[in-house]
Amino acid sequence: MRHHNKNRKFGRPRNQRKALLKSLCLALIKNGKIKTTEAKAKEVRPFVEKLITKGKDKSISSRRVAASRLSNNKVAVKKLFDEIAPKYASRQGGYTRIIKLPPRKSDSARMAIIEFV
């Protein structure tokens, strides 16, 4: 039984899993939408939404927290705080949507697009 095992492991050690989520989050912030597997999209959604909520705060401490979560990528942090977060100032959550796609041909993995609403 998988009680209290909420997060997906993706068959990777913890540091690789964290790096994967960071890179997916950076790509989503940079491009606005990404095509990935459904499981990865579902796992990256709360990570991104928490960052956008931090971005709505506009304080220096929330900017530093976001920078640490995004591998100190100044371009991504600037875009998050100056472009993305202000769009959702009146929204209480649900900043992303996941659109399911047909399975991938090679390995039949369930694919999805995650994008900002």
Summary, kept brief:
By secondary structure, the chain is an alpha+beta fold.
Task: Outline the structure in words.
- Pfam families: Ribosomal_L17.
- GO terms for molecular function: structural constituent of ribosome.
- Keywords: Ribonucleoprotein, Ribosomal protein.
- This protein has one domain: Ribosomal protein L17 (50s Ribosomal Protein L17, Chain: A), CATH 3.90.1030.
- The protein has 4 helices and 3 strands.
- The chain has helices at residues 14-31, 38-55, 60-69, 74-87, and strands at 33-37, 96-100, 111-116.
- It has a 3-stranded antiparallel beta sheet with strand order 1-3-2.
- It is globular, with a radius of gyration of 15 Å.
- The termini are far apart.
Keywords:
4 helices; 3 strands; 117 residues
Average pLDDT metric: 95
CATH secondary-structure class: Alpha Beta
Query: What summary fits the major beta sheet?
Result: 3 strands, antiparallel
Q: Using DSSP, what is the number of strands?
A: 3
Helical content band: 40-55%
Whole-number count of domains = 1
* CATH fold node name: 50s Ribosomal Protein L17, Chain: A
Q: Would you tell me the structural class of the helices and strands? A: alpha+beta
Give the terminus-to-terminus CA distance. Answer: 35 Å
What proportion strand?
5-15%
For the largest beta sheet, what order do the strands appear in spatially?
A: 1-3-2
Architecture in CATH? Alpha-Beta Complex
> Please, how many helices?
4
Give the CA-based shape: globular
Flag low-confidence runs: none
Taking Cα atoms only, what radius of gyration do you get, to the nearest Å?
15 Å
Keywords: Ribonucleoprotein, Ribosomal protein
Family: Belongs to the bacterial ribosomal protein bL17 family.
InterPro entries: Ribosomal_bL17 (IPR000456), Ribosomal_bL17_CS (IPR047859), Ribosomal_bL17_sf (IPR036373)
GO cellular component, one term: cytosolic large ribosomal subunit
